[in-house]
Each structure stands twice: as structure tokens, then as C-alpha cells.
Design brief:
Elements: H1 17-24, H2 56-71, H3 76-90, H4 101-127, E1 133-137, H5 146-150, E2 155-157, H6 162-166, E3 177-181, H7 184-189, H8 227-234, H9 254-266, H10 268-282, E4 292-297, H11 300-307, E5 323-327, H12 328-338, H13 341-346, E6 349-350, H14 360-365, E7 369-375, E8 381-389, E9 392-401, E10 406-415
Helix pairs in contact: 1-4, 1-8, 2-3, 2-9, 3-4, 4-8, 10-12
Length: 416
């Protein structure tokens, strides 16, 4: 079972396949809206929106930032950093919360937590289908709703009508969740109360026209309309590869992949993560070093353009759905081969620093030149990206690795 969300931060410690599959299923349908309730109920299962965001490029950037937060378990502060960059780059004004620190904090928190919690709930809905008994658990919200608290431990069959209305979240900020059990013993182990019963008036409609216990637009089960699709998509990946964010991208319409790849690489948090990854390899941080880290997908147009610079016989099939990546041992090779400033100066170069890895997204996305790099000593096709930045020339050489479907950074140096 995946970790439950933190009631205070909304951050999920371990994204899981069904959660990512649900959110990725929405990325082919980016819907411009004026108000938060322009989409209702199950419409949210198949569409992505941010209230007030209407331009396609703005929506794509926001979707990429939210996707990264969900698929890679990024925190709220990383999302806020990306959000600020996006609204400035796209010139988005008039969004609710603009103009004050508190307003921005509220808006980014709402976007982040709502998408995280709904995708989590939808992924869990698909997973829970194998359990005959479902247990409602209160999420220990900072401001508990009495009616939600009264349902804590409630046990009902998965087919019960209650779940079609009150499968959580059932309102803004609701952090309640559902767990599944196969028998009464499992129910008790999960904190279920077999003696707790629903009151006869559990479907009572309030003066506002909503069922008691549900907020406007929240009286439905997130993910219910797409549960079989989510399950089928999640089953395509039997175990997590080195990078959760790479999984499921084949399910995004081909016409959208270039835009999402470009938006992903433009996020400041991606550049920051590449820099921090190098810092860990350099020994400047004690944090654990992941074996590999992605720099985003190679989209169809980018793959086509890349292949024009390479010998056809050396290209291992279509490069679409490959990604650009960093591996620990390759970064160590860069450090040992190009990290000594005195030696590099003799070559007309300067020593590579961890901060230089933060420039890779720009080098990949806006190169001055793409060149055939020949073959490595083990026969890998190499491709060289060249980019002039702040009076220096960055040269990043990537190896095409068929088995992992990736362009892995082989070396990096800076000419002065």
C-alpha cells in the first residue's frame, strides 16, 4: 500500500503507478477555463485545468509542473518555484491570489494539494477494486469536519452507494482516505469498526443542494469513471524504472509530447535537481545518490531533428520516448575527466562545477549545434550538443543507450 499523504503538507512520500497513470491520462486533454467549477465531477477524471488558465502553452507548462510534483514526489516549495517561473514567462496576470505573498502561497498550495490528493485518491480507487470491504479513515486534518470524523472506521462493501458520493476527498482540503480489506480480520487491523452503521439520513440534502458532508463539486468518487483504464495502464509497468516521471509517457498523445518535454525541461526545479545531483556526486552533499536521474523526454519532433544529424545505421530505431538522463558513474567520469581547473585551462577549457549541470536543460532545448559524436569505445552512438552561454561554450555529449531507451550524458566540458 502506498504511503498516506501528510495532512499538513499534502506531499506524498512515494508516488505509485496507479496515481501517476491517472494523472497522465488527463494530459491529453488540457481544458482552458475561467472558473474552478467550469468542469464538474467526473469531467476531472479525463481533463486537466487550472482555474483562469486559458492559453495552451500556459496550461502545458502548469501541467508539466504538476505532473513532476506528482510523479516524482516533489515538494510544495519546488512547485512554487516552478509556478513563479511559469506565470512570469507566460505573462499570466489576473489569477486569483496574484499580488501578495499570502495570495500566491494560498493559490500554489491549492493547486498542488488538490491535484496530489485527487490523483492519489483516484489511483487508490483503481487499486481498491480487488478488496470486497472498504474502510473510511479520517485524515487528521488540521480543521476536522465533524461529519467526516463521524465516518472514521466505517466499513462498507465496495459496491455501496455511499462511495459514489463520499469517496474522499469530499471537499477542499479534505485528507480522508479509504483502505481495503479482504475479511473482517483485515478490517480490524486497519482500524475499521464493524459495529459502526450509517445513519438512515446519510443522503440528506442540505439547503445548498449538496449532500451533507460534501462540498460543491466534490460529491463524486475521483477516478471511478476511469478505474479500469488506470489499472490497465499501471499494469504495463511491472516495476519502477529508474525514473517514475518517464513511465506512461507513451500514453500521452504524440502531438503533445514535444510540448510537455519542452515545458518539463524549462522548469527551474529540473535544473536545480540536476545541479544537486552533481553536488551529491561531488561529495558536497550527504544526501543519497540515485543511480539515474532524468532530464526529460525526447519528443517526436526533437527525435526527428536529432536523427538528421546521425548516421542512419547507428540510430537504434526511433528515439521518440527516449529521455535524456544523468547516471552517477557518468557524472563521476565528468568530474574526474574535466573537474580539474588547472588541467582544463591547458586545453582552453575551465574546470566543470556542479552548477554547470544546471545548464543542461538549456543546452538540450536550445542548442546552437547538434553534431555526430561518433562512437564510444564500447560502440555507443554519441551525439554532441553545443551551446554558447554567458560567453562560454558548453559541450554536452550523450550516448544513445537502446536498452534503457535513453540518451545518457557521457561527458560535459566548457570551452572559454
Amino acid at each position: 500500500m502506498p504511503d498516506q499523504p501528510s495532512a499538513l503538507t499534502g506531499q506524498f512520500r512515494k508516488p505509485f503507478k496507479a496515481q501517476v497513470a491517472f494523472f497522465r491520462g488527463k494530459l491529453g486533454n488540457l481544458v482552458p477555463t475561467e472558473r474552478w467549477d467550469d468542469l464538474t465531477h467526473a469531467d476531472h477524471d479525463t481533463a486537466f485545468m487550472v482555474a483562469g488558465a486559458q492559453k495552451a502553452d500556459l496550461l502545458t507548462d502548469l501541467a508539466a509542473a504538476v505532473d513532476r510534483a506528482i510523479a516524482e514526489g516533489k515538494g510544495l516549495e519546488a512547485f512554487r518555484q516552478d509556478f513563479r517561473s511559469i506565470v512570469e514567462k507566460r505573462g499570466w496576470h489576473g489569477w486569483t491570489g496574484e499580488g501578495s505573498v499570502g495570495g500566491e502561497a494560498w493559490r500554489t498550495r491549492t493547486i498542488y494539494r488538490t491535484n496530489a490528493r485527487v490523483s492519489y485518491a483516484a489511483g487508490r480507487f483503481a487499486q481498491l477494486q480487488v478488496f470486497p470491504l472498504w474502510v473510511y479513515r479520517h485524515g487528521a486534518s488540521e480543521h476536522a469536519r465533524p461529519i467526516h470524523l463521524s465516518w472514521d472506521g466505517l466499513v462498507l462493501p465496495k459496491e455501496h452507494e455511499f462511495w459514489t458520493i463520499f469517496y474522499p476527498p469530499s471537499d477542499w482540503g479534505c485528507s480522508c482516505y479509504v483502505v481495503g480489506a479482504r475479511n473482517e480480520r483485515g478490517v480490524r487491523r486497519l482500524g475499521g469498526d464493524l459495529d459502526k452503521k450509517l445513519p438512515d439520513d446519510w443522503k440528506k440534502i442540505m439547503p445548498n443542494g449538496l449532500p451533507a458532508g460534501a462540498g460543491k463539486g466534490w460529491d463524486y468518487a475521483p477516478g471511478a469513471s476511469v478505474a479500469p483504464i488506470v489499472t490497465a495502464t499501471a499494469e504495463k509497468v511491472r516495476h519502477w524504472d529508474y525514473q517514475i516521471g518517464k513511465a506512461f509517457m507513451d500514453d500521452i498523445p504524440a502531438g503533445s509530447r514535444d510540448d510537455f518535454a519542452r515545458s518539463y525541461r524549462s522548469l527551474p526545479s529540473v535544473a536545480d535537481d540536476a545541479r544537486r545531483y552533481a553536488q551529491r556526486v561531488w561529495g558536497q552533499s550527504e544526501a543519497a545518490i540515485e543511480p539515474l536521474r532524468t532530464l526529460g523526454l525526447v519528443g517526436p519532433r526533437q527525435a526527428w531533428g536529432l536523427q538528421q544529424h546521425l548516421p542512419a545505421e547507428q540510430v537504434p530505431g526511433a528515439l521518440d520516448s527516449f529521455d535524456f538522463s544523468l547516471a552517477e558513474y557518468d557524472v563521476r567520469h565528468v568530474m574526474s575527466g574535466h573537474g580539474n581547473d588547472a588541467t582544463e585551462r591547458q586545453r582552453g577549457q575551465r574546470g566543470i562545477l556542479p552548477a554547470d549541470f544546471g545548464m543542461l536543460s538549456s543546452v538540450i532545448e536550445h542548442p546552437d549545434a547538434i553534431e555526430d559524436g561518433g562512437l564510444s569505445n564500447i560502440g555507443e552512438q554519441l551525439v554532441r550538443y553545443v551551446k554558447r552561454i554567458n560567453g562560454e561554450t558548453y559541450v554536452a555529449v550523450f550516448a544513445i543507450r537502446r536498452k534503457r531507451r535513453t540518451l545518457a550524458l557521457k561527458t560535459l566540458f566548457v570551452r572559454i
